[in-house]
Design a protein that fits this description.
Length: about 200
């Protein structure tokens, strides 16, 4: 459409995020601060806004990060049992991590009535719990999104390879933008990388 219509017009009003921290990065880096964002009447809390949870000592091996997956599953169990009023989605940065989290979650949820009730309730509303990789989350929306950044140190090293799958490619920013804007209430980012360990270059 951009190639065929002039002048280009884009949507301006951002309705999804109930806290401005959830859209601030995308608004600044991808939309040139053109989005009109409603300010939240509440400050950030554990239930609202952006949260970063560092997973210390985790390793990235065979395209999986087991310690990070276990932390995400622990948090998902806590959410389903104690915060059932909010829908939940889980996103990973590759397929193997998605499969690992899905398998661990199914094992933990087996025969647990509270998690079964959570899943059934949100399925009925069309907002069922999902575990997806980055490429398949387009169009989804949930109250709370957990993100497993997946990548990290190789075993027995302090080295983090600066290759982050699809987001390292030329159009990776589009996938990041989709990922960052799926949540209504909060994003919980689980990572075994510290910000300064990611090398920002051209």
């Amino acid at each position: 459409c951009i190639g065929h219509f002039n002048p280009v017009r884009t949507l301006r009003w951002h309705y999804r995020s109930l806290h401005e921290s959830l859209i601030a990065f995308s608004n600044s880096h991808f939309y040139r601060n053109r989005l009109i964002v409603f300010p939240s009447p509440y400050g950030m809390s554990n239930r609202l806004g952006l949260r970063y949870q560092y997973v210390q000592g985790a390793v990235y091996e065979s395209q999986m990060n087991r310690a990070e997956a276990a932390r995400v599953v622990d948090a998902a169990m806590d959410h389903m049992v104690n915060h059932a009023e909010d829908s939940l989605g889980i996103v990973t940065l590759n397929l193997k991590q998605r499969d690992l989290i899905e398998e661990l979650l199914d094992q933990r949820c087996r025969n647990l009535s509270k998690t079964e009730a959570f899943r059934a309730r949100w399925e009925e509303d069309g907002l069922g719990l999902f575990v997806k990789n980055l490429e398949s989350v387009q169009g989804d929306e949930r109250d709370v999104i957990f993100i497993s950044t997946t990548f990290g140190r190789a075993p027995n090293t302090n080295v983090i390879r600066q290759n982050f799958g699809p987001i390292s490619r030329q159009t990776g920013w589009r996938r990041l933008n989709v990922l960052f804007t799926r949540a209504r209430k909060s994003v919980h980012l689980f990572s075994s990388m510290l910000p300064e360990e990611i090398v920002v270059d051209e």
